[in-house]
Design brief:
The protein is 36% helix and 17% strand. The protein contains six helices and eight strands; from the N terminus they run αβββααββαααβββ. α3 runs antiparallel to α4.
C-alpha cells in the first residue's frame, strides 16, 4: 500500500522483521509487570523531613544540687510510617526550661545542637555516651538511689538515654537469672554480717539505706556508676550489677 509523504524527509531508519517482533512483544509484557505487588515505601529519619504540626513528647524533671531550681527536659518524637509494621518513634527536637537563667546561653546552644543531630537521622545513640562523659570541675553529685552524676550535662544525657529506652531506640542487656540470684545472695550475706557487727542504731541504719537503696558505707561502682560497692570476703562486690574486682 502506497503512503503519501507530505513533509520533508529529514532522516530514515530501516525496520527489520526482528524489530517488529520485539515491539509487538513489549506491550504484552507490560500487563504482567503491573501485576507485581507494590513495595512499601519506608520513611527513614533525615534532615529534609518536614516537621509535622503535632509531635509526641515527654517531659522529665531534673533536680540537681548544682541548681537552685529544677530543670525540665522535653523530648519531642516524630512518628515514622504511622499505622504500618514499620512504625517507629525517633527523637526530633529537645527543649530545656528552668527558672534559673544563669546558664541560659549554653542550655539554648545545647538544645539546638542536639535537635540538629536528631534531625540528621542515623544512629543518634552516641550522644548519650558523649554527654555522660562530661565532668564538672567543681565535682559531681549523687542522685536518689545512689547513682553518681559527674555533671548536669551528664544527667541530661541520662534523661535522653532513659527516653531512648522508652521508645525502643536503646535496649538494655538483660541480667540473667543466675546473676540476679548471686546478687541477692551477696546482699543478704552482707546485710546479715553488717547487722551482727554494726554498732549503729537500727533507726539510723534504716534511714541511711532508704536514701540509696543499698547498705550504708557502700562506695561507687566503676561499672554501673552506683553507690553499691561493698567489701565482702576481702573482695569489692557491687550489689547493683554484680561487678567484682576478683572476677
Amino acid at each position: 500500500m502506497a503512503i503519501k509523504i507530505e513533509k520533508k524527509i529529514k532522516g530514515y531508519n530501516v525496520v527489520k522483521p526482528e524489530d517488529k517482533a520485539a515491539s509487538a512483544a513489549a506491550p504484552a509484557a507490560q500487563p504482567a509487570a503491573s501485576k507485581e505487588a507494590p513495595k512499601a515505601e519506608v520513611i527513614q529519619m533525615h534532615e529534609s523531613l518536614e516537621r509535622p504540626e503535632t509531635l509526641v513528647g515527654s517531659t522529665y524533671k531534673i533536680k540537681s544540687p548544682l541548681f537552685e531550681h529544677a530543670l525540665y527536659v522535653t523530648v519531642n518524637d516524630i512518628v515514622l510510617n504511622a499505622g504500618t509494621q514499620y512504625e517507629q518513634r525517633r527523637p526530633f527536637e529537645i527543649f530545656i526550661n528552668s527558672k534559673n537563667m544563669d546558664h541560659f546561653q549554653w542550655i539554648v546552644a545545647l538544645t539546638r545542637i542536639l535537635s540538629a543531630v536528631f534531625r540528621k537521622g542515623g544512629d543518634v545513640t552516641f550522644l548519650v555516651e558523649e554527654m555522660k562523659a562530661v565532668f564538672d570541675p567543681r565535682g559531681g553529685y549523687f542522685k536518689a538511689g545512689g547513682v553518681y552524676m559527674p555533671s548536669i550535662v551528664a544527667e541530661i544525657g541520662g534523661v535522653i538515654e532513659q527516653h531512648m529506652k522508652t521508645i525502643g531506640l536503646i535496649h538494655d542487656p538483660e541480667m540473667d537469672e543466675s546473676t540476679r540470684k548471686l546478687i541477692a545472695e551477696k546482699r543478704a550475706a552482707y546485710e546479715a554480717a553488717a547487722n551482727g557487727k554494726s554498732a549503729v542504731p537500727a533507726a539510723a541504719e534504716a534511714k541511711s539505706e532508704s536514701a540509696t537503696g543499698f547498705p550504708p558505707g557502700a562506695t561507687l561502682c566503676v561499672k554501673c556508676n552506683t553507690q553499691a560497692l561493698v567489701l565482702m570476703d576481702g573482695c569489692q562486690t557491687c550489689l547493683n550489677c554484680g561487678y567484682s574486682k576478683c572476677g
